[in-house]
Amino acid sequence: MVLSISESCLAVVFDLEYTAWEGSLQRNWSKTDEDPELIQIGAVAIQQQGTRIFLGREFSIYVRPTVRPVLSTYIKNLTGITQSQIDTAVDLSAALSEFASFIPNGVPICSNGDDLEIIIRNCNLNSMKNPIMDVPFINVRGFLARKHLVAPDCKSLHSHRLAYRDSLFSDDLGTQTRTSNHDALLDSVGVANELIRLNWWKQLDSDSEQEITRN
Prior knowledge:
alpha/beta, five-stranded mixed sheet
């Protein structure tokens, strides 16, 4: 019997890259001339077939910001994303629609932190409906902090750091190579591999209280 994607998919782990300027993280993007607009969505499915847990399909898309489509030098250096990639990227509505289509029905989405709030903020900024508003969401940062015996805000738990460490011990990164740049897809892969290593899927039910259902 060949399992369908929805039957074999335990969760979709996603990560985001968004516009930033020097110091905007520390300011929580509070200045009037800065918003964390999405520029990349990356995701990977955690699959199960029998007793085997593994990484499945991948998703990556660049997003063209609406309000400030010209990238800062800071974010270009941080991510390696170029202005030409953004100029030819899809808009937020199209990107989120494609991401929603990637997620199997009834499968939760997970992120290492509350990335969902960034998506909600972007939808509000663009006065549009969030196409994944009804998808169950789990913030796995608390789980990772407990397993690593560190505080949730510890820098060692940042997705980029988990992904970079993952690349040092694995040759299975597909056709892409881990660099020093932030990348939403590779960061998703790193987080997902860490969740698999820590047997996170075994406590999906106990994490259910962390799920957020949007109305």
